[in-house]
């Protein structure tokens, strides 16, 4: 699988490298700027969903997106490590990668053709996005938990879907597919961190 999709995995690693560098520089970012960057990320997502010709996976926007989300993620990661510890943080990262690989295996080797799932996953993504926007104003704890769980299930579904697309050669651009896999794993990691923060024991 890796050999047949070498360019996809190279772009996957490439976007993680960009994200990692941006996360490093996120430590120098003033706390007051992070909400603005988070809003910029949300605007990019919304415009890419509803504006023809504006593609989040485009070569320029995807790089901007990876940089912005890296800058913002430093605060998330730092807060988690301060609340718990570095060992727990890296354990969840390893767990997330393992789950990503397991679902990728099933998507590639077990399911024959689920490329038709795209439209259902897209609708689910819209629901999660608008629910998140709604809860930004309502601040309902049960809704936040529902969004976290639903988001995790959604990106596990996207992992199955994207790996299955690779199996069936149902993609044209290795860079775009690499970016999609980067987003899948990143969101799985963030959802697991959110769940642990909710249920884990503080030091």
From TrEMBL:
Q: How does it sit in the membrane?
A: Multi-pass membrane protein
The superkingdom of the source organism is: Bacteria
Cell inner membrane is among the record's keywords: no
The coiled-coil segments of this chain are: none
The record's keywords, sorted A to Z, are: Membrane, Transmembrane, Transmembrane helix
Say if the entry is tagged with keyword Transmembrane helix: yes
Lineage of the native species? Bacteria, Bacillati, Bacillota, Bacilli, Bacillales
Compartments it resides in:
Membrane
Q: What is this protein called?
A: Bax inhibitor-1 family protein
| Species of provenance | Corticicoccus populi
Segments spanning the bilayer are 12-30, 36-53, 60-77, 89-111, 120-138, 144-164
